[in-house]
Amino acid sequence: MYAAMVTVTIDDGKQDEALERLKSQVVPTVKAAPGFVAGYWLRPEANNGFSLVVFDTEEHARAAAPPVGVRLPDSNVTVDTVEFVEVAVSA
Description:
The chain is α+β, with helices and mostly antiparallel strands. The protein is 26% helix and 41% strand.
């Protein structure tokens, strides 16, 4: 299994709007991606959002992850970092 660790920046004052879009659009889309195993999106801190999404293979993780530097369409969120790490142990 591989995890995609993603950090984003959310425009000032737009955290609630970003959280609603996350729940209504982003999470369902990611859950439907090939190889999806589990996902965790943390409540934004200040203007920063964090997620850890696990897929069955590195290829599926890379295919589903957003590109670094992109501003998500019709949103107030910019992708800062995306890292791919093999899952060593899960419970």
